[in-house]
Write a structure and sequence with these properties.
The chain is α+β, with helices and mostly antiparallel strands. The chain has a domain of 83 residues. It is built from 14 helices and 14 strands. Helix 9 packs across helix 11. Keywords: DNA-binding. It holds the Pfam family AlkZ-like. One of its GO terms (molecular function) is DNA binding. This is Winged helix DNA-binding protein.
Length: 397
């Protein structure tokens, strides 16, 4: 029996540093390079996109990400893995839609129609509301080429101002705005696209514009091919990793993940502790250890959130401080491939650090410099994560 290649935790941390552009000498010149190497950047919290990219740019800033998102369209906001909003490379968007989004959007439309019907709004009513939204946008675009916010659309489309009763008879019964459900669905499907928000780069008040013509629903073969493409892209960035990691990251079923791994010719490798992992067949050679490095990464950063099994870079004893009840990681402080603490921004703008383990004087000096650089980058902007963790609250309030 052939011996499986061994990747210990040190080798995985070396790959993380180099492939996620955190090691010295690996910083990118353009936002597109960062997003491409990370595969997908969480966009549920608008600040995450900008801070995650800035942490990996040779000249950290916000403007280049705004250019890529809003001027050039070389990176796109799309719903994807786990029904979450991400920023992805434009060339990956078709595979993301076919592999993941189309199925999730179809299920979401089914739920929406069911919930609307329970409130006395049938499919014809929903279709009419959708048509009214598109007509309002078409009429407004000549004078508002950047699109309209949900609130602005609500002023033009009365149906959006209505509410539905959700979860009737349950402990979570609540009134939901039609606008929240319908605009989210149209965004998932690609009928509408988020553009530059009102306000600054941390704002979530995105303007909506009509999207490109919707592709046909993918066939089973097209979905499988797209899943193989996405799995291969992810392994090139995050591998070696376990089957569990890919199931968690994609939100696919186990059978789909196994088929995708086989289709991209992934090979079994051994991880620390004898765990089975997978890597691409041309990616089995070890990489050199990088020079020492420090980083302050934002809440939901794609590196911190890149794997289900995180003990090789996040000590279990630090999870209560850094992870919320839903498993979301808050702002983190890194030294040589390990999370050693966290950070938060206070109302006065100060960036405060808290180390959960002592990484030594070199690390403390480097992390203090990162905090000073982040304070300069943020300038007058104040960042409070949408999903707050105990450490972030402790430092930031």
């Amino acid at each position: 029996m052939a011996v499986r290649p061994l990747f210990d935790d040190d080798q995985r941390r070396a790959r993380l540093a180099r492939r996620h552009r955190l090691a010295p000498g690996t910083a990118a010149d353009r936002a597109e390079q960062v997003v491409d190497d990370l595969v997908a950047v969480h966009a549920t919290d608008p600040a995450t996109v900008f801070l995650a990219v800035a942490a990996r740019l040779a000249a950290p800033g916000i403007a280049d990400t705004e250019r890529a998102l809003y001027a050039d369209g070389t990176v796109l906001r799309r719903h994807g893995m786990r029904k979450t909003l991400f920023v992805v490379p434009a060339d990956l968007a078709p595979a993301l839609y076919a592999s993941t989004t189309a199925k999730a959007a179809a299920a979401e439309r089914t739920r929406l129609l069911r919930d609307f019907a329970a409130s006395g709004r049938d499919a014809a009513w929903t279709a009419g509301a959708q048509d009214a939204v598109l007509a309002a946008l078409a009429a407004a675009l000549p004078d508002s080429p950047d699109g309209l916010t949900g609130s602005q659309l609500g002023e033009l489309v009365p149906q959006l101002r209505e509410t539905i009763d959700y979860g009737v008879g349950t402990s979570y019964q609540a009134a939901q705005p039609v606008s929240m459900r319908l605009l989210r669905l149209l965004g998932m499907e690609g009928t509408l696209v988020r553009r530059r928000p009102l306000g600054g780069w941390t704002s979530s008040r995105h303007r909506w514009v009509p999207g490109p013509p919707l592709p046909a629903a993918p066939s089973a073969a097209e979905r499988a091919a797209a899943q193989a493409e996405l799995a291969g892209r992810w392994l090139a960035s995050h591998g070696p990793a376990t089957e569990d990691d890919l199931v968690w990251w994609t939100g696919w079923g186990v059978r789909e993940v196994r088929a995708a791994l086989a289709a991209c010719a992934a090979v079994e490798v051994e991880l620390s502790g004898g765990t089975t992992g997978f890597a691409l067949p041309d990616d089995l050679a070890p990489v050199a250890d990088p020079a020492p490095w420090a980083a302050l990464l934002p809440a939901l950063d794609p590196t911190a959130m890149g794997w289900k099994h995180r003990d090789w870079y996040l000590s279990p004893e630090h999870r209560p401080d850094l992870v919320d009840r839903s498993g979301n990681l808050g702002p983190t402080a890194w030294w040589n491939g390990r999370i050693v603490g966290g950070w938060a921004q206070r109302p006065d703008g100060e960036v405060r650090l808290e180390l959960l383990t002592d990484p030594g004087p070199e690390a403390r000096t480097a992390l203090a410099a990162e905090a000073a650089a982040l304070r300069t980058l943020l300038a007058d902007t104040r960042v409070t994560p949408r999903f707050r963790t105990p450490l972030e609250r402790r430092l930031g309030d």
